[in-house]
Amino acid sequence: MFGIWKACDVEEKRAPARIDPSRIITYVTYKLILSPKFKRQLIESN
Hints:
Blueprint (H helix, E strand, L loop, with lengths): L3 E13 L7 E12 L11
Antiparallel strand pairs: 1-2
């Protein structure tokens, strides 16, 4: 897949660990957008 990746947003969620609730685990989600690099990659929608 060819294209240009752009980072949009970073989302962090904190939750207690299942085994040891005194520990906090941070889950990080990176939201990315893939933009076409060439005009041939564009698809017309009807």
